[in-house]
Amino acid sequence: MPVATVGDDAEVQREVTEETIQQYAELTGDENPLHTDPDYAAEGFFGGIVAHGMLGAGLISAALAALPGDIVYLSQDLDFEAPVRPGDTVRASVEVVAELGDDRVRVETVAEVVDGDDSTTVIDGEAVVLSVSHDD
């Protein structure tokens, strides 16, 4: 099985629904009312329910898993730049930008809300992962 090298990229895309947000809250125990209570959230900073930031980060993880080789997360830096709302479609994209030695690669990571030809970056970051052959 090949391993991830500079230039390799991958992406995943998913619609985020109120149900997705609720399931994430139940799975993680993060019941912050900005994510789970429409009345409370309407009066809050975002003016309505928003998805957990880490839900978008989870899509980045899924995109990393689509790279060649067995991928093992070592670190991730994330900048949360905009909210994800119910009904948004999120595309997470990753690209290997450097080989660091010892089977480690640096990967640029981004999640965007996409609407036709338009997109808004919601998460920008960088990860370091191990990329090893399953045969190793």
UniProtKB/TrEMBL annotation:
Species: Halolamina salina
Protein name from the UniProt record: MaoC family dehydratase
GO molecular function, one term: hydro-lyase activity
Residue stretches making up the MaoC-like domain: 9-111
Entries under PANTHER family matching the protein: HYDROXYACYL-THIOESTER DEHYDRATASE TYPE 2, MITOCHONDRIAL, HYDROXYACYL-THIOESTER DEHYDRATASE TYPE 2, MITOCHONDRIAL-RELATED
CDD domains the record matches: R_hydratase
Taxonomy of the source species: Archaea, Methanobacteriati, Methanobacteriota, Stenosarchaea group, Halobacteria
InterPro entries named in the record: HotDog_dom_sf, MaoC-like_dom, UPF0336/Enoyl-CoA_hydratase
